[in-house]
């Protein structure tokens, strides 16, 4: 049995300050089940022109970063974790759609009853052609 490739840790946005900066300065796209916040380059990480950051960050190598935020009203822990797994898998399979951004934050807001509808909504919000 072979398992699919794992999402690298460097693709996960896990610093609280970076997440709050993304929520404040990002472009919000609202859907039925979730809200996608896309952040342009230079807000989360140091800009490419900054000489001190040039050695620290290679933007093309690192690619986009993202975080998944789920409210408790979305269901039990099992359902919330299932939704997070779906979002992470979607992001891993469609990284090329987010290459212009530094962070994508999915904030799940409503209880998801149908996983197929949720997956279609992720495709629509990300701009992927159906």
Give the oligomer, counting copies of the same chain as homo and different chains as hetero.
single chain
Main structural class: alpha+beta
Dominant shape = globular
Q: What is the percent of helical residues? A: 25-40%
CATH top-level class:
Alpha Beta
> From N to C, what is the helix and strand string?
HEEHHEHEH
Most strands sheet: 4 strands, mixed
- The total of helices stands at 5
CATH architecture: 2-Layer Sandwich
Low-confidence stretches: 52-59
Rounded average pLDDT: 80
How much of the sequence lies in strands comes to 15-25%
The count of β-strands is: 4
| CATH T-level fold name | Ribosomal Protein S5, domain 2
Structure overview:
α4 (77-93) links the parallel β3 (65-70) and β4. Helices cover 36% and strands 19% of the residues. With 130 residues, the protein is α+β, with helices and mostly antiparallel strands. The protein contains 5 helices and 4 strands.
How would you concisely characterize the structure shown here?
By secondary structure, the chain is α+β, with helices and mostly antiparallel strands. Helix content is 36%, strand content 19%. It is built from 5 helices and 4 strands.
Keywords:
single chain; 130 residues; alpha+beta; Ribosomal Protein S5, domain 2; 4-stranded mixed sheet; 5 helices; globular
